[in-house]
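Listing S7. Sequence submitted for prediction.
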Amino acid sequence: MQSGADVSVTQGVVRLPHYLEKGTSWNMQPMVSAMPSLAKLSAALADPNEQANMVQQLSTGIFANDPVDVTKLATDPTEQLKLVGA
C-alpha cells in the first residue's frame, strides 16, 4: 500500500561516546550526573541545619577563593557551574 508520503534517507556514520571500561563489564557502569540533583539541593537547603553545613562546605577548601552563593544556586548558572568545577 502506498501512502503518498515522501521520505528522504540519509546515510552516514555516527561516532557515539563510550566508556573507557573494556571487557564484559563495560555496560555495567552506572550513569553519574555531573551536577548534583537540583531537587536534592533544594530539599537540603530547606533544612536550616543542612543549609548551614552546605554553606560551610561551599565556602571553604576549593571554594575558599570563590564561594558558592546558595541563595542563587537554583537560578544562576554561574553558581551551578562552580559545583561541577567549571
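Caption to Listing S7: primary sequence and predicted C-alpha cells for the chain studied. The chain has a mean pLDDT of 80. Residues 55 and 70 are 7 Å apart (CA to CA).
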